[in-house]
């Protein structure tokens, strides 16, 4: 997968070189490009913002640098995209991801969808956001996803990009040692969709007089699986009853219903 990020704070994205995403990058599973938006300004002050039409507080990011940056990074001016085989099928355009508190929620399902695309371009904003025409213009050439990481307001979209890139990258083939790790996570499509994962334990079997639940030491896979599902259901009912309410009734088996 290729990921490009356009930002006025390239250094904010440095954590992408660390840990799981950093390793994926180093191993060539992910190609990462971080671009300074100010490269596409043409005035002495390298201005990226201006006052909002209609008045009001704060500043709005100007369309010109964003437009030029997106044209160049995505090759939208009709140039063949990098990596497309000569005479091969039309390359897929990137998905433009615009982090914004006014977007649709970024969920595990969205992370799965994005992980199946070959190329993502992130456009994190600052101030009051990006001039709307930039999003509309890009939308004529590529799919645009305006996504929120939660019902709160950050100072800028870079932290949201870190969140989304990490959630997507760990789903890419080869990034996690064992694919079961993410297939059994909270929210994973399948039996865990709409469920929170229950508690986990490791050695030693007794610590500060607290014993690991006996079933986990039994070696009985069927019982362990049932126990894990029961714990996931209990935790979800206690902490996120909204998730249970939105689950189709036939997603619960007879043992689930006894709980
Ligand atoms: N005026 C905007 C509003 O009320 O919707 C908030 C702008 S916020 C101060 C600046 C930038 O931070 C946003 O344009 C977006 O890139 C990012 N941001 C803030 N909160 C976010 C969230 N919950 N999810 C994703 N991005 C967020």
UniProtKB/TrEMBL annotation:
Q: Where in the cell is it found?
A: Cytoplasm
Q: Where does S-adenosyl-L-methionine bind?
A: 149-154
Catalyses which reaction?
guanosine(37) in tRNA + S-adenosyl-L-methionine = N(1)-methylguanosine(37) in tRNA + S-adenosyl-L-homocysteine + H(+)
Q: Does the keyword Methyltransferase apply?
A: yes
Q: Which GO terms describe its cellular component?
A: cytosol
Keywords assigned by UniProt?
Cytoplasm, Methyltransferase, S-adenosyl-L-methionine, Transferase, tRNA processing
Say yes or no: keyword S-adenosyl-L-methionine present: yes
GO molecular function terms listed in the Swiss-Prot or TrEMBL record: tRNA (guanine(37)-N1)-methyltransferase activity
Q: What does this protein do?
A: Specifically methylates guanosine-37 in various tRNAs.
Family per similarity comment: Belongs to the RNA methyltransferase TrmD family.
Oligomeric state and interaction partners are given as: Homodimer.
Protein name, per record: tRNA (guanine-N(1)-)-methyltransferase
Q: Which organism is it from?
A: Wenjunlia vitaminophila
